[in-house]
Write a structure and sequence with these properties.
four-stranded parallel β-sheet; two-stranded antiparallel ribbon; 19% strand; 230 residues; single chain; Rossmann fold
């Protein structure tokens, strides 16, 4: 009768559906192109090895530019330098304020009004060191907002037709207020500097890349001595 025929058709259809399900489960699934969750992006100031390779850097100084474009302000460009050195480079570290300049505070102010507050003979002395096969690194606890001013200062130190040797400028990624608090209130700018030097040293596991250091604070001198003699 009709009822038995309907039941028979339902059983056949059910069996067919179950068979198709089993076949689908046995077939390998293609990789999904849609992630079940959004990828989290994280800001970082450290490039990976592959990212650095894609920059096609040459030995020595490489200029890079960062640009941001907005509908209101247009395009703003900030330039920086990336230095590439081989594993045999011998580094000499120099502080800036109170070392290249005659004092910490006036070393910030006087160059802004066109004056020279650097130690006499510093350019000739540093060039003599460079000519003996050493590479300078300039290290300062100044804030990142003072980077251009600091670079201009180093570039404009000229004594008896001698300029300071070209080298990386490493400064604190903190704000101006944080840097001033660490320098003036805590009086411990060496905390940033020591961590910075440790990061550089970690890139040279086979040897100590530091051969000398110049600074005007006893804490930094002791720390530099430890890093150089380790």
């Amino acid at each position: 009768n009709d009822s038995e025929q309907e039941d028979s058709e339902v059983r056949k259809l059910t069996a067919k559906i179950e068979q198709e399900k089993q076949q689908q489960q046995q077939q390998p699934r293609p990789p999904s192109t849609h992630s079940s969750h959004q990828t989290a992006l994280k800001k970082t100031m450290i490039l990976s090895s592959d990212e650095l390779k894609r920059l096609n850097l040459k030995l020595g100084k490489n200029k890079v530019e960062f640009s941001v474009t907005t509908s209101i302000q247009g395009t703003t460009t900030v330039d920086a330098n990336i230095f590439l050195f081989d594993h045999m480079t011998k580094f000499v570290i120099s502080d800036i304020d109170g070392t290249i300049t005659k004092s910490d505070v006036l070393g910030h102010i006087i160059p802004l009004v066109g004056g020279d507050w650097s130690h006499d003979g510093i350019a000739e002395f540093f060039n003599a060191i460079q000519e003996n096969g050493y590479q300078f690194i300039y290290l300062s606890a100044r804030a990142i907002g003072q980077s251009q001013i600091t670079r201009n200062f180093l570039k404009n130190v000229k004594q008896y037709d001698r300029e300071l040797p070209i080298g990386p400028l490493l400064i604190s990624p903190d704000t101006l207020m944080t840097a001033l608090y660490r320098e003036v209130i805590e009086k411990k700018p060496e905390y940033f500097k020591i961590e910075c030097l440790k990061n550089i040293a970690s890139l040279f596991p086979a040897k100590n890349p530091f051969y000398a250091g110049f600074g005007n604070r006893i804490n930094l001198i002791h720390k530099n001595s430890f890093l150089i003699s380790r």
